[in-house]
Predict the structure.
Amino acid sequence: MMLSAQDLVWRAGRRAIVDRVSLDVRPGEFLGLVGPNGSGKTSLIAMLAGLRAPASGTVTLAGKPLGRMSRRDLAHRIALVEQQAETGERLTAREAVALGRTPHLSALSPWSSRDDAIVDKAMADVDMAHLASRSWQTLSGGERQRLHIARALAQEPRILILDEPTNHLDIEHQIGLLDLVRSQDLTVVAALHDLNHAAMFCDRIAVMQAGRLVALGTPADILTRRRLAEVFRVDASVEIDAAGACFIRYRRPAAMPRARHAAS
Amino acid sequence: MTSLPLPSAEVDASQARPALAPLRFVAGGLVAAATLAAALALGAAVGETSIPVETVAKTVANRLWGAGHALDPIDEGIVWNYRIARALVAACCGASLALCGVVLQSLLRNALADPYILGISAGASSGAVAVAILGLGSGFVSLSLGAFAGALLAFGLVALLALGAGRGPAAIILAGIAGSQLFNALTSFVVTKSATADQARGIMFWLLGNLSGVRWPDVSLAVPVALGGLLICLAHARALDAFAFGSRSAASLGVPVKRVYAVLIAACAFMTATMVSIVGSIGFVGLVIPHAARLVVGVRHGRLLPASALIGATFMIAADVLSRTVIPGQVLPIGVMTALVGAPAFAMILIHRPVAR
Ligand SMILES: Nc1ncnc2c1ncn2[C@@H]1O[C@H](COP(=O)(O)OP(=O)(O)OP(=O)(O)O)[C@@H](O)[C@H]1O
Ligand SMILES: [Mg+2]
């Protein structure tokens, strides 16, 4: 099922936050979305997930514009983990994950033991089964993040859209989680800040800069020293090993031209 | 709940066993029906002249299926025409206000939301004042109808303002505050400018809630509205659950957010306006009962909604009984009673609430 964006534009006031972005997410791929803070990743994701109507352009899923699909149909196919989502309700960890079953439930198909099994599995997948009955408010940031991801998995989507999923996670869980997501039979779009993770897990990487999609390709093509300097303003060397995997090593900024305000 | 990490066997046991779900459902229903029946019976039995519960039961049997028990016609009249009607309306009113409280607290993601946040009680009081003091409708429009019209007018204004101000929870709350302030000011203006001392006192009594005038026609209005409202809310229980992490998250879980907002807020406005127009604006029930119910049954709306309705109904019947009996020979406004009990209860909940960030 191809998720595809054509000429997406979204504006806040007169400023184009997302500026003519076209992009095909191929079935089964892990597409990374990278770019500096404020480059428009979250805004683009909101449109890809069908949560925000673009000012112009369209997003289609298997050829059908998202705007013409019902919320429920969409939720059967696309799950989203937001960058920030909090609650004041006194939910338990498991109840938060169980919300992922919402689009599959109705008066005619009420909660069943199959739903229980799916929720249990999602909790176990993110290594949270032991905290199932803990109250949400007592969980750490990383634990909450893992539950958000479990909820998205419990939704059983075809396409999983993640906005900085590794936020708050320790390194073991960062890598474990990306690996978990990658090993599922899912199409994944993930906004990532860690470029080494992007290199490690993504089939392709899309680079956003000031609302524009400035590059799209395999990690080895995208993560070049020059692009890192241009887009992210860091000095880094990129090694590509025999297997084609790419590793980035950053250097201290002393070697870079100073930022403008520091020079004056 | 500062629950400690439990050993995994206990964790499993704490999850609802699916096989037990229908059983629990039936048991819950029975408990609810029994509680409500007991409260209604008590509401009908207790009063200035107390009447045995047995007489109440016989009266109901006589009236509903012509059982033909021999009863004192005066007792029977008091029970049937006044007290049962009154208890039923109190129950409907308590249930509706509590339901609206749950729904609005959940949709607006605000623990302090109550049914009157939409400007309804303020509008109702303006409508009532317009009829009672300014003589709008020149005798053909009842106080209730005036209040109902005022409530809907205020709600319409608040809704328009909220739509214009960006639709989100904050917009709705702020629009509600603006609307409430405006209509409260209008009410005060009219009362201070035109009301006689007696009228002012009467209006104040009405504003604090008054069930004295309730008769069967009110029951036949209140019951369908409360039941209909309960059904609409229950049909949206899962959608309300999905709002736990905000409306965006609800949307990504497949909830048609705009439609749910429109249906539920309109339903709440209609329920509240109806109840307020029958009994006046009774405070605190819509704010406190949802919190109390959450402590008892948790936050999932499939249980929270019916539990709140039940607790609200029972609480209101009890408050009505108290308001009639606390001071012999005098009926206190029921709103005074609900707030006198409600405010300390709310304080307790606030103190014992688990510390949340
Ligand atoms: N509703 C809005 N009104 C005005 N400006 C907005 C709005 N939403 C986003 N922006 C701006 O659009 C830009 C892009 O925001 P966005 O959240 O998409 O960035 P991002 O790439 O996800 O950044 P980050 O890496 O920090 O998450 C930012 O400059 C932000 O301030
Ligand atoms: Mg972002």
